[in-house]
Design brief:
By secondary structure, the protein is mainly α. The chain has a single domain (2-312), classed as Farnesyl Diphosphate Synthase. It contains 15 helices and no strands. Helix 7 runs antiparallel to helix 8 and helix 9 (164-185) packs antiparallel against helix 13. The chain is globular. Belongs to the phytoene/squalene synthase family.
Length: 340
């Protein structure tokens, strides 16, 4: 399947093909929900999504998943090396790391603004030193670089039926919505890493602080104050989904089934958390396999319908190729940090 994707995308260089293969493997292994949604995209657009996801996953692993014995200073050094490699790759198209090589090629093909990648790297660097956020506004400042820009990176790949600048705020909001869903699901795991992404003022409004979260995590006991805070954060997140929803209709019709599937599945994380009694400090809520399969099947039906409609639509302009003037030099969801 990967060779067919690469052939359809016009990627022939052996080193580049190997780099894209590597990114696709990262997507399949770590981003199961996102990988499932990506399979609904036109075949020639999938390698670009794999490249965007692969780079984000690689950077995230440097911050979160290196050997626990590696200290913050060393993590910062490794992240700095990746940032410098990224800058070189975006400048001249070369890179030793497969994720950089594939990303630089995708950025060139689709005219993705380099600032989006630099903002993402700044957010990853913040995760090395910032352990909590005082307010929701502070958290949204962080999610601009960690999630909103990922939606903006994806937009040229997905294509739009409106001016890209019109669709951009909705794509950014969708990236944030996905990440906030993950923050809610991963409260316990993030606490073990020393981070609390739920805003301190929201927690305090329910009488919750880090010590109470730690007590609940360590003892396995519930507290109604924590449940109240988690429920409020869920409501905030649902508001961001509502903010993002109008953007689905702005996408190229053949891309909509992919993003709608991701929209439903990541929104389903909120439903799973609520069904599980907001027990995120004790276990990870998950969307069931049956539900995932049903949403994916619905996505396939929508894919076939969109492609059939595209064939029947008279005078429909061809979608812009990656290097067409409609794409080059324009400002423009891989996936938000921690997406699975």
């Amino acid at each position: 399947m990967t060779d067919r994707e690469l052939d359809a995308a016009g990627i022939g260089d052996p080193a580049l093909r190997a780099a894209y293969h590597h990114c696709r493997a990262l997507n399949a292994r770590h981003g199961k929900t996102y990988f499932l949604a990506t399979r609904l995209l036109p075949v020639e657009r999938r390698p670009a999504v794999h490249a965007l996801y692969g780079f984000a996953r690689w950077a995230d692993d440097i911050v979160d998943s290196l050997d626990p014995g590696v200290d913050t200073e060393r993590r910062g050094q490794v992240l700095g090396e990746l940032r410098r490699s990224l800058d070189r790759g975006l400048r001249d198209g070369h890179g030793r790391e497969p994720v950089v090589l594939a990303l630089a090629d995708t950025a060139r093909r689709y005219g993705i603004e380099h600032a989006h990648f630099r903002d993402f790297m700044s957010a990853m660097s913040a995760d090395l030193v910032v352990t909590d956020y005082a307010t929701y506004a502070d958290l949204r400042g962080y999610t601009h670089g960690s999630a909103a820009v990922i939606g903006l990176q994806m937009l040229p790949v997905l294509g739009t039926v409106v001016a890209r600048e019109e669709a951009a705020p909705y794509a950014a909001a969708l990236g944030v919505a996905f990440q906030l869903s993950n923050f809610l699901r991963d409260v316990g795991e993030d606490l073990d890493r020393g981070r609390v992404y739920l805003p301190a003022d929201l927690l305090a409004g329910h009488g919750v602080d880090r010590d109470l979260l730690r007590w609940s995590r360590d003892t396995g006991r519930h507290d109604r104050r924590i449940t109240g805070a988690l429920r409020e954060f869920e409501a905030l997140t649902r508001g961001v989904y509502r903010e993002a929803a109008p953007g689905l209709a702005m996408l190229d019709p053949v891309s909509r089934p992919c993003i709608r599937t991701a929209f439903v599945l990541y929104g389903g994380i909120l439903d799973a958390v609520a069904r599980d009694g907001y027990a995120v400090l004790h276990r990870r809520a998950a969307v069931g396999q049956r539900r995932r399969a049903a949403v994916a099947a619905d996505g396939l039906v929508r894919v076939f319908a969109a492609r059939l409609a595209a064939r029947r639509r008279p005078g429909r302009p061809a979608a812009p190729s990656p290097l067409s003037p409609a794409v080059r030099g324009t400002s423009c969801p891989p996936v938000a940090k921690g997406v699975a």
